[in-house]
Design brief:
By secondary structure, the protein is mainly α. It is built from 14 helices and two strands, in the order αααααββααααααααα.
Amino acid sequence: MPRSVLLALAGGVASGLLYLAIIAGTMGGMLFAYLSQVPLFLVGLSLGLSPVATAAALATLIVAGVGGVYSGLVFVATCAGPLFILVRQALLNRPAPDGSVVWYPTGHLVAMLAGMAAIGMVAVALLFGGGEEGLRGSVRDGLSRVLEAMMPPGQDAADRIAFADGVAAIFPGLAGVSWMLMMAVNGSLAQGVLSGFGRTIRPSPPLAELVLPSWPYYALGASLLFAIVAGGAVGYIAGNLAIVFAVPFFFQGLGVVHALANRVSARTLSLSIFYLVLIVSGWLALVVAVAGLMEPFVKLRLRYGRPRGPEEE
């Protein structure tokens, strides 16, 4: 059996088993489930489309065989399917006139991730938003049941429902952000591991050079407009879509930070401190997203940044 097939089968088994850890219902199980895409990314980014398709199919069969058909469908919709699309696009390339290879832009991959999250949110709204209060009511009721199981007996029901309703206002958007970050982190982790072993098909793109296409600007603007002027289910979905479409600008803002950090002698230390503060401060994440949104107009990278030298790679 060819080595690539063996590696694809191993990746599929690893991905399926990691995903099934979610059945345990523990924090450790959730962590393993979050890493279930890493084996598939490792296969796809090092071996190509056919092996990753094999690995994804095997992982889906494992998940469906143990967790049921519904679990298999969820795995395909949230993990295997989007991952295959991202790997396919990431491996697209064309020759440049100077003989070099031009790869599919990283910024377009980030924008595509937001697009898939938005499509998923709309699909969920159509499937589960048919109640009297639409998707928000369904989300609120689900969160209320979870909180009821977690809170001690005697907790006031009105307070619980009010809290659940407040969280429900932005829950779909936060879920979309979580999914996007999960995909981005898993893909970056796999690419980093493969780069260390020299097994990548595509060279690792510098984050400092990430540039978004134009359509996320229009998508964010339209979402904000409908969130303001529309009410009911449309305004609710639009507001949460705006949260999702803000994420690509956060990544572009990180690109600005990395470009500016290239001017600092203690670059690694500076970035380490920045990410430490970013983890504990939501306000800094908002600042980064605004910087990414404004970058095409203020051009901070062009004015104050610089490319990384060979010794810094």
